[in-house]
Structure formats: C-alpha cells, structure tokens
Amino acid sequence: MMINKGLKVGVFTSIVLSLCTISCRKVQVDTPLPDQTPTPLMLKVPAHFPAPTKMLDNPLTVEGVNLGRHLFYDPLLSANMQVSCASCHHQERAFADGVALTAAGVSGKTLERHSPTLINLAWADQGFFWDGGATNLESQAFGPLTHADEMGMSLVTLANRLMASEFYVNLFQQAFAEKPSAQGAAKALAQFQRTLISSNSRYDSYRSGQDLKALSEGELRGMHLVKQKCGTCHSGELFTDNAFHNNGIDDDFTDDSNEWIHRGRYRISFNPIDLGAFKTPTLRNVTRSAPYMHDGRFKSLDQMLQHYRSGIKHSPVTDRLLYDQNENPGIAMSDKEMTEIKSFLEALTDDIFLNEITFSNPNKK
C-alpha cells in the first residue's frame, strides 16, 4: 500500500470497479457457492477517541479482516510476485518503511513520495495519499496495485491469480460469499487497515486515567507545548486534523512532471491556495517512523523541529498558522522546549501496536 505517486484514484474509482467486475466475470466458474454469513466485527474504540468514520458499504467482518491481512502481506498482488503492501509498510516502523523514498517497487525506480504510516485510518475522512487523491481506502488500493513503479499489477491478472488459489477462493467465500476479484481484494485490504488502531501509548494511559503517573514532569510540559505550538494541525486524540497544509518546506512549486507530484493538494483540487499543501500525518509513533515529510527530507525529529522554529519558507500559500503576530514565519521554541516536546513525542510510542500479532504477517514463522 505505498502511498506515493498514484493516479487520482478517487476520480476513477467507479470506472475501475466496473472494469474489475467485468473482467472478473470472465474467470468465474459456474459452480454455485453455498451461502455464508460473515461475522460482524466491532472496532475497539477507546473512550477518549472520537467515533470512527462509518463505512456502511464495506462493514467490518472477522473474515474480511482476515482476508485483508493475508493479502496485505502477499507478494502475489504484484506483477513480479516479489512486492507486497508490507514491502513498504513495516509494522515495527508504524507501517512506514524507514527510508526517504523507496525503490522497493517492481520497476526498481525510486518513487517520488515517502511511504506514510498506516495508523488510525478508520478516522481518516478527507482522502488518502499525501494529496488526498483517493476518497477512501477501497479506492486507494488501486493506486499502488496498478502503478508501474509500485506493484505494476493488471486487475485482470490479479483476479485470475486469486481465482487459481484454492486458499483465496475459500477466504473470499468466507468474507464476501463470492468468487475472488480485484474489487473484493480492495475491500478486504481496507477492512484490515481500519483495524490498525494505535491507542496504547503511555500518553493514553495518562489520558484515560488508567495511570496518572505515566508521564514525567518533562513529558507533561512537552504535552502542553505540543498542544500550544502544534495542536492546530496535530489536533485531538488522533494528533492530526487529517487536512492539508503548506508547511513552508518549499517556496517554489514548479513541477514539469506529468503527475504534478510536487504541487501537493493542488493536483487534486486545482485551487491555487492548495499549492504545496500535503496531508497532516499523525504524531502517534512518530519517534519510530522517521524520516519525515511527504518526501522524507528530514531524517530526525531535531531537523523537523528546527524547520518549524527557523526554517519555514515564506510564500503566498504558506499556511498562516505558521506565522507569529508580527507576520514572521516560524514557531518560537527554546532548546529546552524542543527537548520537552521530543520527550512527549516519545510518550506517544505504542509498543503494543508495533508488536500486535494480529497486525503481523500471518505466514511468518
């Protein structure tokens, strides 16, 4: 599920799904399948979290999530059968990959966007990819699946491969009471990703009242500093507003590429104010998901914080939230405050999430 330079997937979702349905019919056999009702699955939502986004057209089931988990880790989904979603989304790195720009796709070419974390996606309601080019997780899946430099997969070939696997024929029957298809694969992948909930950090123990001593005095000061200086965008218990901001890392948005990768949200909205605006990532598990930004340009938290303190570039589209009352770009932070902010960010690390067996490769021994 690399979220890099994809097509404007949300725009073409209905077309892709229709084509997928048509192509999958060609490989279906005539033997009827018995009826089976999947088991509904309720997300375990912490009391201090908001309600997740409802997905009535793809409700979670035990069987759907199980299918999605197997597909997520299976290189069968790529053209050369060597690349899986997990190739660029490693659980121990909060489902990022630890490199700025990966070359792990089927073409071996370096991609143009950093593989993001996959955390608390059940609450994402403003689009996926760094520019919001997919409207939901279901449509998002077709971007990396079909992109020539990522998984390079034909949807017809994908359906045929799944149909040829007795294992997947059985799992699709259990999950959807239907034959395998690319559309069903996207739905199952989305279901699995919506279960990737991170809510067991030391901060959560403090926030829920389970352990009021879970945070040190320095971490508590850091928590208040994050709310004060970063909380407008990294807001709430999710530590993201799921919106798009130009955070001043560039002031030149010239982009002659066919896909306008470096123009940010503008390539989707065509609104000039969205030039250079990218999606706000969550701060949860941020100490495990370096490097940072949509292109992975900052290798460390120190570099990232230094950018916000003194490196913000002024442009007509730089978010005004990053300016002080005198209209100077930058967020005032002393060295001590930066240290305390980093200490709190460490308290957002969720070791249970990073090691949760139900999120891991089901085929790994």
Record the SSE blueprint.
Blueprint: H1 9-25, H2 62-72, H3 137-140, H4 142-146, H5 155-163, H6 166-176, H7 182-194, H8 202-207, H9 217-229, E1 244-245, H10 266-269, E2 278-279, H11 301-311, H12 335-346, H13 351-355
Antiparallel strand pairs: 1-2
Helix pairs in contact: 2-6, 2-7, 9-12
Summarize the structure.
The protein is mostly helical and 365 residues long.
Task: Supply the key terms.
33% helix, 365 residues, 2 domains, 1% strand, disordered N terminus, two-stranded antiparallel ribbon, mainly alpha, Cytochrome Bc1 Complex, Chain D, domain 2, globular
Number of strands: 2
- In CATH, the topology of the largest domain is named Cytochrome Bc1 Complex, Chain D, domain 2
What coarse outline follows from CA principal-axis ratios?
globular
- The name of the CATH superfamily of the largest domain reads Cytochrome c-like domain
What structural category arises from helix and sheet content?
mainly alpha
Strand content: under 5%
Low-pLDDT regions: 1-33
* N/C terminus separation: 23 Å
Overall pLDDT, averaged?
91
The CATH architecture name of the largest domain reads Orthogonal Bundle
What is the radius of gyration computed over CA atoms, rounded to a whole number of angstroms?
21 Å
Strands ordered across the widest β-sheet: 1-2
GO molecular function: cytochrome-c peroxidase activity
Domain Di-haem cytochrome c peroxidase: 63-210
Protein name: Cytochrome c peroxidase
InterPro entries: Cyt_c-like_dom_sf, Cytochrome_c_Peroxidase/MauG, Di-haem_cyt_c_peroxidsae, MauG/Cytc_peroxidase
